[in-house]
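Changelog-linked ticket: coproporphyrinogen III example.
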Amino acid sequence: MTRVLDTLALEPTDRRPVWVMRQAGRYLPEYRELRSRHTFQESILDPKIAAEITLQPIRRFGFDGAIMFADIMTPLEAMGIDVVFDPGPKLRPMSLAEIADLPDLDLDRVAHVAETLRLVRGDVPDDVTVIGFAGAPTTLLAYLLEGSGSKEYLPLRTAMHAGTPELDAALVKLSNAMHAYLTMQVDAGAQVVQLFDSWAGILPRHLLETLTFPAASAALTGLDAPTIYFAPGAGHALGSMRSIGATGYGVDWRIPIDEAWVKLGTDVAIQGNLDPAILLTDPDRIQAAVTDLLRRTAGRQGHVVNLGHGIDRHTPLENVAAFVDAIKEAH
Ligand code: CP3
């Protein structure tokens, strides 16, 4: 067992585990150096490069979790969709009927992801947990309908309110595809998988409860590994989120973590939730924020320390080190 696995199982550990979302990325000079020689997509497609990028933040900071380097859009390419990155994903917007008619995920076309996970699992220290991931059906649907990220996600919101049979079919298609993709990741060595529902928080609670959470649940149910569901901005629906049946839930920084945990239910694990902006301040403020975070979850098992969303690209390296050290030195 590892600290992350024990914590998700609500078992005691010597200290809380810590990793950060987007830890394999642009704030690291060794990542920027590699990327100056390989494009983003080349780096994902070549398991040796993807594994190397996955391991860079582990070597530098000693995180307890290693999240594989890929993107939430990577498996859509194995459903016949052309995606370019500039720097976010861009694709041809599709209708609900077209999405429902997409071919099933071709696992051979994501074999490089499985190979990355095998390489990472073979290389990480035994106490580091290998984390796989996928985009949640609602968030993937947002990109497919709009063709890119956006501020308002009006095509997604309109489709969810309309609630047509084509919407249900599109969500089923994406849930099934992500279930197959995550199953492959677990078979290849992922010890935990996280489902990113990055844009679900824009929806009203009733649509989360009737459409988004059931679709996320279908993607996660029956996997042979613990699961984490993360929907930033969805604090208004924490009271019903556990209907998904995940092992743990990520929360963003908008809500104090102790309050979020009570809303979720303290018999499930929680992950979070330092504001990434705190890592842009200074080591003293980071120490104070960590002390507050740990105080709020003291006396209970089940807290995986993380940020409330991805680390910012301008984060100073010494601040990341101060954050990890503050967790490791606390008891
Ligand atoms: O931030 C989140 O909400 C997490 C979920 C998510 C990922 N990709 C996971 C990810 C989302 C919403 C995306 C879409 C995406 N892909 C964006 C967001 C903005 C937009 O325009 O829609 C961007 C910029 C990309 C492209 C991308 N993905 C780049 C350039 C990188 C490299 C690293 C970096 O931070 O610059 C990624 C890596 C990535 N995306 C990882 C994950 C889980 C890698 C593993 C890790 O977390 O370190």
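Closing comment: Example verified and attached. The chain has one domain: 3-329. Residues 223 and 265 are 22 Å apart (CA to CA).
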